[in-house]
What does this fold into?
Amino acid sequence: MEPFRALTSRVVVLDAENIDTDQICPARFLTSTTRGGFGTALFADWRLDGQGRPRPEFALNRPEAEGARVLVAGRNFGCGSSREHAVWALQENGFRAVVSTSFADIFRSNALKAGLLPVQVDPITYQKVAAPPREVTIDLKDQTLRLPDGSVAVFPIEPFARHCLLEGADALSFLLSQEAAIAAHEQSHGSPPGGPAS
It folds into this structure.
């Protein structure tokens, strides 16, 4: 997983609330449990017309969206069913962070585990970040979001998730990195090699 430390990027704004995971990645695209291949599914029902052509009015299809790595969306982003595919589809389109006033819990959890940073802000900060000019700097080490007007908002993140994102590690790789410490702990507490006796 690529470490996340600081990122400066233009943003794409989807100024809508309750964007659910079936809009982010429609169910008919859930044909695999591997991470690749979901980029074209991202907002497919909003992004494409009935003939599969891009809708020019949709935010992600506009020229200014090209290369943006931060998505800004309304309250309760990622609600609906749990699907890691929604996170993977966002990542495959280059997004490394989503800014919103609130996230569905399961989406937030899936995002953090996969390396996509959910940045929760207050409504006033949201209005600022959604208004032009649309470029922000996210500093995960300081947990700050710097806006074009120079103001800075602090965002919350669970300490373990923050550590993993900064190091580019998922929970399993973090656990494996602690193998020596775990073995030393077991030895100091009298556990036999291979784990405690049953």
Summary: Residues 105-114 form the longest helix (10 residues). Helices lie at 21-24, 44-47, 84-92, 105-114, 123-130, 159-167, 171-177, 179-188. The first strand starts at residue 6 and ends at 14. The radius of gyration is 19 Å.
